[in-house]
Amino acid sequence: MSASGRPLPFVTPQTEFYWQSGADGRLRLQECQKCSTLVHPPRPVCPHCRGHELGIRVVSGRGILFGFTVSHRFQLPGLPSPTVVAQVALDEDPRVRLTTRLVDCESDDLRLGMRMEVLFEQVEDVWLPLFRPAAEQPEPAPLPLDELGPEQVRARVRPMLGTRRFEDDSVISGIGQSVMGRRLRVDPLSLTVQACEAAVADAGLTMDDVDGLASYPGGAADSGMGEGGVTAVESALRIRPTWYNGGMETFGPSGSVVAAMLAVSAGLARHVLCFRTVWQSSHDELTRRGGISGSRGRITGDMGWGMPFGATSAAHLLGQTAQRYMHRYGATRETLGWIALNQRANAALNPTAVYRDPLTMDDYLNARPITTPFGLYDCDVPVDGAVAVLVSAADTAGDLARTPVRFEAVGTQIIERLEWDQSTSTHEPQVLGPAAHLWSRTTLRPQDVDVAELYDGYTFNCLSWIEALGFCGIGEARDFLDGGRNIARDGILPLNTHGGQLSHGRTHGMGLVYEAVAQLRGDCGPRQVRGARVAAVSSGGLAPSGVLLLRTE
């Protein structure tokens, strides 16, 4: 960071051409000499033609406003509050979108498609390319379409390699969760142990039966997003596993379940304990009080392309994506509000949910803004808690305490671009691909799903999964969600029946798996969906994601 604490990118020999363009006032981007396309962020190979002949090109610094969000919540040193975080599609190649900050403008005057021009702000050795509205403003231009729309994504699904389905080789034999709440201020590893012990007991097994461990995001997690991974859990429980796995680059936050399925199918383990722990609410409080100090180094990786402009959260990307969705399909904030209201109504029947008080549409619309169009109730609630799922070999079913839940299919394929600001522009990235892949591995169809537990870090995540999985058509969520009837517990798609992450708490995907299993077992009491036999469970978005289709016997 700068001396003032302002976040700055880590400049390397490969990126200095971009971050130091402003020295002469001319914006520069990487260009493929073979196919003449612009490449951003810079790469050692062209992602369009895979050519290696790469150079630097001076561009005009002009484009159109492709997205913007007015950030009220996430304040950074040296930046105004509120901050207008934006994306600009360049004239030379509208597929290239630069994340930036808008200046010299009023947010109420901004319109998608309006003309923008670059100017530079120097902070130490970095020239940040900011943008402002151009002096001449014709009618706003139409927004460019994505390289891969929903139909093109579906066309790129890879077919199954054979008739054997690894999904048939394993079952979910047990589930468990720890105490859960806001700012518990307890050792996160103790929460993990609680959940793991509960899952093993639920299956009628002992820790001595467990021979595999799987975790997300692994031992390197910080910011209250983990307990220390496999290393910490093995140190506490001494499982002595024959197979183990932990890391972030997997099929979403509950990707450990898919990894466990593969291990069981390969014969490397028979009972794999998958776990996910968060203690972000306590971590954030301790940070505010000075109990935890963070790094002041420069920003590396993909976050380095957005954080210097104020894009510190997934909310800044998804806020712009939701805005484009509304612009194209006519949805409104009320469209997202029905998701928040549905989750709160379900949470009222769940004694483990954090937020159970009634929520009205007026409450939702009048809540404090976070980053437009999102308000407080569009965002999931940080909690402290842990969830564990035990994945066992299918041939152990007769030895288990409960009738197991079966895996019907998984969806895991990456089709869309992974760079957040270069990917799908009207739906959450990394949702369309896994959803299309799922239906290629089963004869079941969306109308066969009895209950849906869909990732809702933000309301718009949930909307994206609803459309991607085919529960309504692309762009039809406004009508499908209107009034909340279709997604109620007695509707055609009972949604996030435990309250979701919006009201139950941010268990980062694994809580959705827990609820799906409980629904298919018929264990949910007053929130139970009648006759639930098939459940869809999605995990994540933006980063690599996954989706499971679960069923009863």
What does this 3D model show about the protein?
By secondary structure, the chain is α+β, with helices and mostly antiparallel strands. It has 14 helices and 19 strands. The strands form four sheets. Strands 11-10-12-15-9-16-19-18-17 form a nine-stranded mixed beta sheet, with helices on both faces. A five-stranded antiparallel beta sheet has the order 6-5-4-7-8. The radius of gyration is 24 Å and the shape is globular. The termini are far apart.
Number of strands: 19
Main β sheet profile: 9 strands, mixed
Structural class, judged by helices and strands?
Answer: alpha+beta
Approximate shape: globular
Overall pLDDT, averaged?
A: 94
Q: How much helical structure, as a percent, in the residues?
A: 10-25%
Summed up, the helix count is 14
**pLDDT < 50 stretches:** none
The spatial strand order of the largest sheet comes to 11-10-12-15-9-16-19-18-17
Distance between the termini: 55 Å
CA radius of gyration is 24 Å
Strand content: 15-25%
How would you sum up this structure in a few lines?
It is built from 14 helices and 19 strands. The protein has 553 residues and is of the alpha+beta class. The model has no long low-confidence stretch (mean pLDDT 94).
What is the topological layout?
Layout: H1 16-19, E1 28-32, E2 38-39, E3 54-58, E4 62-71, E5 83-90, E6 97-101, E7 115-123, E8 126-133, H2 150-155, E9 170-177, H3 188-202, E10 212-215, H4 229-237, E11 243-246, H5 255-266, E12 271-279, H6 280-288, H7 314-329, H8 333-347, H9 361-366, E13 369-371, E14 374-375, E15 384-393, E16 405-411, H10 432-439, E17 451-453, H11 459-468, H12 477-481, H13 500-504, H14 510-521, E18 534-539, E19 546-551
Helix pairs in contact: 8-11
